[in-house]
Design the sequence.
């Protein structure tokens, strides 16, 4: 079932994209319901899926006992799908029932290769998210 532009157009991750870019991205996304306690991804496994939170609360657990919660609509999970190390760096588990949009790594790469300008915009956003999350984790260690 294709995702409609209205589902993503107001999400922070998609801010700054033109309507045709939103349409293109939406055409690659799939909706999915998530059960409480379901693991969306596991640390150390190949990063094959990128998620965008629509609802629910998710705990990301890292090595060494560090963790953080993600609950804001539009938050992304699984950025390692498109940036090295291409393995999940944490385990994301649903603390509540919820819903997400997802795109496989193969489809994600197809999307950014088919539209270089869109790909560049998306990768800038993902690089910022990755940097912010790394900083969050290192701040907690201080």
Sequence:
């Amino acid at each position: 079932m294709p995702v409609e532009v209205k589902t993503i157009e107001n999400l922070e991750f998609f801010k700054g994209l033109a309507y045709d870019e939103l349409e293109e991205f939406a055409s690659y996304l799939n909706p999915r319901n998530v059960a409480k306690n379901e693991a969306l991804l596991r640390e150390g496994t190949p990063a094959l899926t990128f998620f965008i939170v629509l609802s629910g609360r998710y705990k990301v657990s890292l090595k060494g006992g560090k963790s953080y919660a993600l609950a804001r609509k539009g938050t992304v999970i699984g950025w390692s799908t498109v940036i090295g190390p291409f393995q999940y760096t944490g385990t994301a588990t649903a603390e509540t029932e919820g819903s997400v949009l997802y795109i496989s790594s193969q489809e994600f790469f197809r999307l950014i290769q088919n539209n270089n300008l869109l790909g560049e915009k998306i990768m800038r956003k993902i690089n910022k998210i990755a940097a912010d999350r790394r900083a969050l984790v290192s701040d907690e260690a201080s």
The chain is about 35% helix and 25% strand. Residues 112 and 120 are 7 Å apart (CA to CA). The chain has a mean pLDDT of 91.
